[in-house]
Amino acid sequence: MPRRKSDVGLEPNRRAELLRAAAKLFVEKGFDATTTRDIAEAVGMRSGSPFYHFRSKQELLKAAMIEGLDAGHAQLLSAIDGINDPEAKLRVLVRTHLGTLLEGDCRSPLLVSEARALDDKARAEIAAAFDRYQVPWQETLEALQQADKLASAAPPVRLLLFGMLNWSSHWYRPDGELSVDELADAAVAMLIARPKKTKAQQ
Amino acid sequence: MPRRKSDVGLEPNRRAELLRAAAKLFVEKGFDATTTRDIAEAVGMRSGSPFYHFRSKQELLKAAMIEGLDAGHAQLLSAIDGINDPEAKLRVLVRTHLGTLLEGDCRSPLLVSEARALDDKARAEIAAAFDRYQVPWQETLEALQQADKLASAAPPVRLLLFGMLNWSSHWYRPDGELSVDELADAAVAMLIARPKKTKAQQ
DNA sequence: GAACAATAACCAAGCGCTTGCTTGCTTAAT
DNA sequence: ATTAAGCAAGCAAGCGCTTGGTTATTGTTC
């Protein structure tokens, strides 16, 4: 029974709906602990119906990761659009990343740890999507180094930075004392040696 | 059929053997993707035999995490024993932590993300073990702040630091260009504003 | 514009397999 | 004689996925 046009207000594109529900459940419970029945139920389908849209559970994960990462990438680009100062740019990158990580409901960067459930080919595609995501970060870090605001822009710096941010999903509680803005500030402050103060930073 | 004394070289304590095998598999494949049959096979048992030592698969995870964390804690304490300079202390903490993370074969800190498979009570016990583990870190960070080598020793700093380190297990390759020692140096350098150089840190 | 065919998007039912775990028994050590 | 430590076998539940049918929509032909 397909959706009628009279069912207004309901997402007509059930594929995207499945992707969002799957991403959310995969993040919350993990890939293996999430059953295809969970996903179907989350969008009001019967247990076998998701397989009309996706050939396998793995393909659902793969699509959720890639499309989620690309969406996040686009969000990053539009967020830094027009910003020239590299420090301000980094601040916006960090804030936006933490936003999709802690405030969104798909939170695709967290699914990295679930990629082990996929085969080599799928993992390669995901790695490519992640490379795209990292481009603006690396550019900004190099600009910061050029402006003498960063000691090094070697790859480990970028990776350590992502670690700081991504791991925060393990401990950050939105109802706690720390706001996401403050967290973003703390992360940026750890990276950048403030130019105005010298050795003794209060 | 219990182990004979004549089976020299084989671990007599099969419980610890099970714990190590389970921790390794849980880290590699995740809790849900690891079957109790995998664990049994890894130590040369039949599929039902692990349940003589542990009441459930969850209890295996819980024990692996707590005993792994406490072992890591003891290793930390003995590693910093006799070191007074807080910067050297931090360096050793980071290096030791990365050692158990990237070079050990249990790597218990990585299992944090698998704790969601446990109930509230078990998670509370694990959180307590993690609190113990974090004590020397917080002490060292505060000593660093007192010595004006660190801008802030507020809790987020410690948590961001753990993020940097723990996340490295997602990308670090032991056969790559970067050694664990260099990685430890890079991580410490990101935290500490070098006192000898000022603004332009080359 | 009515009749019909084709298609998209599901549902109902269930198949074969794997899972965590149990039970009853066996054997070596104490 | 008792116990610690395991094996052999298997159960019930849950898993990913398939199959065949059903229905509203869309396109085509007369």
From TrEMBL, chains A, B:
Any one GO molecular function term: transcription cis-regulatory region binding
Residue ranges for the DNA-binding region feature of this UniProt entry: 35-54
Domain HTH tetR-type: 12-72
Keyword terms: Coiled coil, DNA-binding
Matches recorded under InterPro entries: Homeodomain-like_sf (IPR009057), HTH-type_TetR-like_transc_reg (IPR050109), HTH_TetR (IPR001647), KstR2_TetR_C (IPR041490), Tet_transcr_reg_TetR-rel_C_sf (IPR036271)
Cross-referenced PANTHER family: HTH-TYPE TRANSCRIPTIONAL REGULATOR RUTR (PTHR30055), NUCLEOID OCCLUSION FACTOR SLMA (PTHR30055:SF183)
Name by which UniProt lists this protein: TetR family transcriptional regulator
